[in-house]
Amino acid sequence: MDIKTETQNTGIEDNNKEILNIERQLALGIWIKVIGQIIEAISLSRIFLVSEEIRSNDNEQQILSGVYLQTVGQFLEAIGITNQVLSSDEVHQLQGQKITVTGDWLQALGLIVEANAGSRIIGEEERRIIP
Fold this sequence. Notes:
Order of helices and strands: HHHH
Number of helices: 4
Structural class: mainly alpha
Number of strands: 0
Radius of gyration: 22 Å
Strand content: under 5%
Number of domains: 1
Shape: elongated
């Protein structure tokens, strides 16, 4: 092996190590988002339990359902990303990708559910405030 090829291989190895380090930071960031999402779900659930007015509103129930879907999706995304980062086996990495994408879809669905209910609440408030 000549010096040029050896230098290129060392550069590729260094680059791969840097990418792995960044991917680990990414996984950590996603787990932090999971914690935030769980806090949101718990806090909204507590408000839901305390307020009869909110509890009896179908749109508020839908918002809570949307947040739960997003929480499950965020958790799955974190599991999938972690599986991808920690495994060198391509089959496990592919499984991690599938879990990640499933989580992404659940988050998207939850966001749609939540946004739809929020829009209906705004419409109700506009009709109440603006005659």
